[in-house]
Amino acid sequence: MRRPSLPSCSLSVPLVAFVAHEMRTAEPMLPLYLLANRAFAGAQVAAFAISASLFAVFVYTTLYLQNVLLLSPVQAGLVYLPATVAMFVVAGATAKLDRVVPAWVSLSCSLALVAVGLLVMTVAEADSSKYVLLPGLVVACAAAGVFNPAMSGIVLGMFLPAESLLPGGSPQDFVSGLQGALVAAAFVAALGTVVCAVCLRPRPQTAPVFGDAESDTVELPAVTG
């Protein structure tokens, strides 16, 4: 039985109402003028990009490990263990990275590596080894180690047929959907890379120009007295 689809306006109406309320209230939850700041807006896009790509896909990689590769919950958790360790190690090692590397560089490079890691995971098949996701997970999670995500879980479920998520569903249909979700997630991370590079990179400071551009002299106002 086909699931009924939600009206497209069901999500846009609350969003419009929220924005309208934030514009009128004296104490907004999110002062909208902050979005005019390139650094603030870029940081929010960066947090959204990693949440909507890497972290959103975890639920589906877990279902793949358990429902397709038939791993137990403990075995599936152990597959994630090296990537989790890599995330913690990188987070600790890069805690003071901002002192030597601009934030826009580290965030952009990290999101780019997240995209690479997600694409590496697309090699997964219905009969793959239980370690097939591990290289991509390590790359993506290590890259995510420099982040403190401000958002969590944007669902990529439209790529996976509902029947394939249940026990007894088609493994091949699930894998095909998983690969599509990984590509979409990688695209989100790559898009975040571009936005971070553009929005978070500081603008060059221009020296003030005094006097006439065609003359080396500066005309001073006359002093009377």
Structure commentary:
By secondary structure, the protein is mostly helical. It is 56% helix and 0% strand. The radius of gyration is 24 Å and the shape is globular.
List the main descriptive attributes of the protein structure presented here.
225 residues, mainly alpha, 6 helices, 0% strand, globular, disordered N terminus
Instruction: Tell me about the largest β-sheet.
Output: none
Number of separate helices = 6
Strand residues, percent: under 5%
Shape assignment: globular
State the order of secondary-structure elements, H for helix, E for strand: HHHHHH
Radius of gyration of CA atoms, rounded to a whole number: 24 Å
- Mean pLDDT score: 77
Structural class determined from secondary elements: mainly alpha
Helix content: 55-70%
In oligomeric terms, what are we looking at?
A: single chain
Could you give the distance between the termini? 94 Å
Extract low-pLDDT stretches.
Answer: 1-8, 149-154, 211-220
**Beta strand count:** 0
SSE layout:
Elements: H1 9-24, H2 38-68, H3 73-93, H4 103-120, H5 134-144, H6 171-199
